[in-house]
Give the backbone structure.
Amino acid sequence: MTKGASAMSQPLGEQLLDPSTIATARLPGRLEKLAVNITSHGDNAKVNVVLDGAHVPFNLAAVLSDLSQEEKYRAPCIAVVSIADDKDAAGLLSAMTRHDISIIFTTVGARSRSPEQLKTIADTLGLLSIVMLDPFEAYQEALAGAAESGAWVLVTGSLYLVGIIRAA
């Protein structure tokens, strides 16, 4: 043991952070809340958007549960979704059945499960969905639909998808 090692034996943790730092700490693509201004049919509208790369059923269920605690996320939701081939697509989509969500399935590359396959799973679960292969176009469609209907938008299922939308 080196000199001074006993002083270093205490683990570092959140006790070293002040409350304002803890309150503002965020991980990109995790429960990231935005208010996006768009023009739809000549009118300006603000759409609430949440970016969360939840890619396992438990996480998505937790995200939706947390969001449902806020009034603005109790409205219907339009989700833009891509899911990797190695993820539990049926489980993720099942988590959405407990909420008023319609889905736009898209793809973000070779690792993505086919949006058509995802739509087939969604159909068996009774979820309303469409397919738009281009993720940016899918996001734009979700924003337009939300502005028109008063819904909010969730981008989820893949951190890759969230990254594409964040960069747009």
Q: What stands out?
A: Residues 93 and 122 are 7 Å apart (CA to CA). Residues 135-149 form the longest helix (15 residues).
